[in-house]
Amino acid sequence: MSMEKFDYNAAVEELESIAVKVEDPQTGIDDIDRYIRRSKELIEACMAYLRGARENLDSLSS
What we know:
about 60 residues
């Protein structure tokens, strides 16, 4: 995944949306499982993006 193409803000918004859906008592267990898997993907992508940004900052300050 390229940092230039990854939209961190969109990923965070999607995570917030998923949290609302998971908390809804009307959400089925199969949907919750799907949302959890998607959340894991988004969190991993966000962490990779932030690691890359941190590495870029560290290389600029060196």
